[in-house]
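Exercise 7b. Backbone tokens:
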């Protein structure tokens, strides 16, 4: 029988620190009214000092695993969609794998801008459909505050930090991720980009002085692009899934700007009740925005078993994508206290395991016998 990739768990994490519009007016020439009328955003969450993309990803992943009643050792694949990784390498996904104690999981990062989660969901679902894996953890996580120019009124009002995650599991029952549609147009790469820090424009004193390590965006062009591709991608993915727009239960768009969301809804002739929006409270969290919204919609009961949900986004690249999901997981029941305690204990043991493995590698560097060098003293 054919296999299907089902969403069986979901979770989100937002940092505790909240930055309201009124506070931004103390940094740049703006106001709460100016921001709300142009973006629909009232506030956004920002990381605390020392909090990273991996930290947020782990928190969202733990919640998703809890909903799925999954242990980390059952996860076979981890994909983290982000443009703000902890490091260029190792991948944030590998850090997440270690922090979760997902000892059986392959892990890698994926960069597709704000469309990253849709790309990651598509890749993971197709890997499950191929039979290569039976389960996957797909995470969108961003620390956009680290690449935001807080002196630029045009961009600093838009972005926030956060993470969202889903657990996928293969199964023979119908439903799950029915289809995906992905696209790109690199000719528009300079409409939304981070100029410096890569091999083309390496970090230098000049790039620091010219503030080239912050997000730069041509808002008007991005707006027009976004409305068109969200309409087209939604229609295309529904057609690929064998459905019409009238079959749609809920649209979950990338939370970039309320005006973009409303314009896309009008172009699709969808009522406001059929389009989920939380940009007012979180701002644009890039690759994290769709999984945060999906998780929140599920938590609030906006998605029920049998519903047809489309997630659609656009972002730097330029990229765009959509995924059609037949919701097959009923609202989760809270796991018994004993299971929750055991799972939390496992995460503590995962930290101990990680430190132990680091110690073994440190000892092996001095030629001390261990399984890594087969008991032979290092020649170095």
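Sequence design result:
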């Amino acid at each position: 029988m054919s296999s299907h990739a089902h969403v069986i768990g979901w979770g989100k994490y937002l940092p505790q620190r909240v930055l309201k519009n009124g506070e931004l007016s103390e940094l740049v020439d703006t106001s709460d009214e100016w921001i709300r009328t142009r973006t629909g955003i009232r506030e956004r969450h920002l990381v605390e000092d020392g909090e990273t993309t991996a930290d947020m990803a782990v928190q969202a992943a733990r919640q998703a695993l809890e909903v799925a009643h999954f242990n980390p050792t059952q996860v076979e694949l981890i994909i983290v969609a982000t443009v703000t990784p902890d490091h260029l390498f190792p991948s944030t996904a590998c850090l997440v794998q270690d922090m979760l104690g997902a000892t059986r999981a392959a892990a890698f990062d994926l960069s597709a801008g704000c469309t990253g989660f849709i790309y990651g969901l598509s890749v993971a679902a197709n890997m499950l459909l191929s039979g290569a894996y039976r389960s996957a953890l797909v995470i969108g996580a961003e620390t956009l505050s680290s690449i935001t120019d807080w002196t630029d009124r045009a961009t600093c009002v838009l972005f926030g930090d956060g993470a969202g995650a889903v657990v996928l599991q293969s199964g023979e029952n119908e439903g799950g991720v029915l289809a995906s549609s992905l696209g790109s147009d690199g000719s528009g790469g300079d409409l939304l980009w981070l100029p410096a820090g890569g091999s083309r424009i390496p970090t230098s004193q000049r790039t620091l002085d010219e503030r080239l390590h912050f997000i730069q965006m041509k808002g008007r062009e991005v707006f027009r692009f976004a409305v068109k591709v969200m309409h087209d991608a939604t229609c295309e993915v529904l057609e690929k899934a064998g459905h019409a727009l009238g079959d749609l239960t809920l649209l979950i768009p990338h939370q970039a700007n309320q005006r973009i969301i409303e314009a896309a809804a009008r172009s699709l002739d969808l009522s406001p009740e059929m389009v989920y929006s939380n940009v007012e409270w979180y701002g644009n969290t890039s690759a994290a925005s769709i999984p945060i919204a999906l998780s929140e919609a599920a938590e609030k009961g906006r998605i029920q078993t049998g519903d047809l949900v489309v997630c659609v986004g656009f972002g730097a690249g330029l990229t765009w994508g959509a995924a059609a999901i037949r919701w097959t997981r009923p609202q989760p029941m809270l796991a018994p206290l004993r299971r929750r305690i055991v799972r939390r204990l496992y995460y503590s043991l995962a930290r101990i395991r990680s430190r132990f493995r680091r110690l073994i590698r440190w000892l092996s560097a001095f030629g001390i016998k261990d399984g890594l060098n087969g008991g032979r003293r290092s020649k170095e």
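Instructor comment: The mean pLDDT is 94. Residues 4-326 form a domain with the Peroxisomal Thiolase; Chain A, domain 1 fold (CATH 3.40.47.10).
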